[in-house]
Write a structure and sequence with these properties.
- The chain is 29% helix and 16% strand.
- The chain is an alpha/beta fold and 313 residues long.
- A nine-stranded mixed beta sheet has the order 7-1-2-6-3-5-4-8-9, with helices on both faces. A four-stranded parallel beta sheet has the order 10-13-11-12, with helices on one face.
- Helix 1 packs across helix 5 (114-123) and helix 8 (266-281) runs parallel beside helix 9.
Length: 313
Amino acid sequence: MENLTDAVRILKSGGLVAFPTETVYGLGADALNVKALAKVFEAKNRPTFDPLILHVVDAAGARALAATFPPLAEKLAAAFWPGPLTLVLPKNPNVPDLATSGLPSVALRVPNHPMALDLLRAFGGPLAAPSANPFGGVSPTTADHVTQGLGNKVDLVLDGGPCAVGVESTVLSLLEGVPVLLRPGGTALEDLERVCGKIRVPQEGEAVSQSPGRLEKHYAPRTPLYRAGSLPSYPGRPRLGYLAFRDDPMDGLWERVEVLAPSGEAREAAANLFAALRRLDGAGLQAIAFEPLPEAGLGRAVNDRLRRASQKD
């Protein structure tokens, strides 16, 4: 596979390769090469205090990067890897501080995409792979989204089609006695609790250990985004967009409507979220209103992304 050979060559020389995962496209770099990691932060214009998730091909690869890999980590890895779950564990000294923003912990996951796994296997080591887009913007779920956002800042883009899950991984910290949900994502909290028991969910605004995707303003389109009912008044006949969960409101107020899940399934909404936001963002609108999903399953992850992308009161 020529593209895969090229990708490995680029990564081993310290370059950047965007590749698909089941969640979003990642901007891949050699996780143990500090100069390559610095290129990731530069390409994304990402602050260095925001840690990266390291992708590995299997649980053995994760164990090599963690100082300890407790029984609960083994249990979760067996149940959810490969898949959209990131575990935060004490880091092995071989992990560069730049990858972890100087924290004594490391975020690890095994992606569930054949192209990502082939790349990791061929590369033979861990890859840092935050979302392949400018920092704070809408995450990419197709190869075209990557090219639109990063252009020639990435050396190669591997096209694996649209991402099936469409929102980033769930991030779970195992640094305390009780697991802590640092970021809701593609693995539902309810599914995790069936395997590991009660998980602590921090209150909004509570200070917790750093994790990717926890900045208050994140995943944002350029067009102002508001929760439905919080949209400010605009003079005349404004050009407004609406991001609906399952039904078009059909009330004539909206220039453009995107329906995330006609089926009413949160999984469908998650898969469609970022692409729908991008379409609305490119429609020349003055503002976008969104309808939250029920706060359960993947609806929790979709609501988290929308809240972080929206204008605050």
